[in-house]
Amino acid sequence: MASALHNLSSYDAASVPSAEGLSFGIVVADWNDRYTYAMADAAIETLKAHGALEEDIVVKHVPGSFELIYGAAWMLENVDVDAVIAIGCVIRGDTPHFDYICQGTTQGLAELNLKAEVPVIYGLLTCNTPEQAEERCGGRLGNKGTECAITAIKMVAFGDE
Ligand code: RBF
């Protein structure tokens, strides 16, 4: 699946279980929406390409990546989903805020993933520059939204065999 460039978006479709009959929650941060929306679109397209129905994909928006924790927890609590995908993009600025948001969001999503009965997929881009985000949202390094969708489908099937 991985290439030398770590572009995991090129994958062998036959190695991915079917997403038919599955439902997914996608929580998208509106900060850096140029990137997060591109990831969300790719995630939705990929889920559908593997058999999920549009009406079984629930998308909710939150203001920033830090709110992904609440958004994902809300999704787990209120929507009957087989997996939740959290999508955000943090880009380093002049202050240490970047580190706090990345660390807090990562920690929060990791804790949810441990506690939840369905998988929580980590789709947080943590970039030093907008160019790095661009490369990962449909650019040179693929689209991390696609990879989140594949990961979600695989994790739903985890333990099936
Ligand atoms: N949210 C993001 O998703 N990406 C960012 O790059 C980002 N940068 C921020 C920088 C600063 C200085 C602040 C105050 C907030 C930033 N946020 C960012 C928003 C953050 O995730 C959250 O929405 C707010 O802190 C409100 O809880």
Summarize the structure.
The chain is α/β, with parallel strands linked by helices and 161 residues long.
Tally of discrete structural domains = 1
Mean pLDDT metric: 94
CATH class: Alpha Beta
CATH topology title? Rossmann fold
Broad shape: globular
Helix content: 40-55%
Radius of gyration: 15 Å
What is the topology?
Blueprint: E1 24-29, H1 33-49, E2 57-62, H2 68-78, E3 83-91, H3 97-115, E4 120-127, H4 130-136, E5 137-139, E6 142-143, H5 144-157
Parallel strand pairs: 1-2, 1-3, 3-4
Antiparallel strand pairs: 5-6
Helix pairs in contact: 1-5, 2-3
Bound molecules: riboflavin (RBF).
The site of riboflavin has 16 residues, from strand 3 and helix 3.
Write up this protein.
- This protein has 161 residues and is an alpha/beta fold.
- The protein has one domain: 3-Layer(aba) Sandwich (Rossmann fold).
- The protein has five helices and six strands.
- The strands form two sheets. It has a four-stranded parallel beta sheet, sandwiched between helices. A two-stranded antiparallel sheet has the order 5-6.
- Helix 3 links the parallel strand 3 (83-91) and strand 4.
- Helix 1 (33-49) crosses helix 5.
- The longest helix is centred in the middle third of the chain and has 19 residues, at 97-115.
- The radius of gyration is 15 Å and the shape is globular.
- The two termini are 21 Å apart.
- The relative contact order is 0.22.
- Residues 29, 31-32, 63-67, 88-91, 93, 95, 97, 101 line the site of riboflavin.
